[in-house]
Write a structure and sequence with these properties.
Arc Repressor Mutant, subunit A; 2 domains; two-stranded antiparallel sheet; 9 helices; globular; disordered C terminus
């Protein structure tokens, strides 16, 4: 079934709202344009409308947010406590899983051997499995070197869970230290390579972060 193409700017805005509200997954501007029958060139217009809707929803009880190039509605942060269930299932990561997740986030795409080189210890398969099952890490292909090792990267779900629009918003070393989130072990890990610059992608005050492939 082909979606009827909206005719006026107001129609487009309402159609975008309805599409995002009904979607089970966050959508990119191009996916929305395709769904609404706006053609390949409709993405730019949808992006402009999304930016307007984002401003319109900012003071409301729900907000339109963009995470990793994908858009969805979520509860305003100051009202989230009203919707929490009394009994929550907490997802607690082990120290090893937390370290691996941080290394993947700051260095992706990265192989297990590279993770182990930074951590200085062997990484159990189960540690990566936990992150894959949580939906925060994904297999991003294979490194084109002898042995073609599997490489890992973060997912849009990782950005959404931690409230990040992109990996550019990850905190830097100084911010982590100021917040008291670094202990001597973390400092040693950073010295081993977690904060090492990667050519051409450094951002002052932040750990080396590559641009997201949108």
């Amino acid at each position: 079934m082909t979606t009827a193409q909206p005719h006026t700017p107001d129609d487009v805005s309402r159609a975008i709202e309805a599409t995002l509200f009904a979607s089970e997954q966050p959508l990119t501007a191009d996916q929305i344009a395709l769904h609404l029958g706006l053609g390949e060139s409709g993405g730019d217009g949808v992006r402009a409308t999304l930016a307007e809707l984002e401003r319109d929803y900012e003071p409301r009880g729900i907000r339109l947010v963009q995470r990793g190039g994908r858009w969805h509605f979520e509860t305003a942060p100051d009202l989230a406590h009203l919707l929490r269930r009394e009994k929550e299932e907490l997802r607690r990561l082990s120290r090893a899983a937390t370290e691996v997740l941080a290394i993947v986030a700051y260095h992706e795409p990265v192989s297990r051997a590279e993770i182990e080189a930074i951590r200085g210890v062997q990484t159990a398969k189960g540690t990566l499995d936990v992150l894959l099952e949580a939906g925060w890490v994904r297999v991003a292909g294979r490194r084109e070197v002898p042995g073609r090792p599997v490489i890992y990267a973060t997912t849009p779900a990782f950005l959404d869970h931690f409230g990040l629009a992109s990996r550019r918003e990850l905190p830097g070393i100084d911010e982590l230290r100021a917040a008291g989130l670094l202990d001597p072990v973390d400092e040693d890990m950073i010295g081993a390579g977690l904060g090492a610059p990667r050519s051409g992608n450094e951002k002052p005050g932040f750990l080396a972060i590559e641009d997201d492939p949108d």
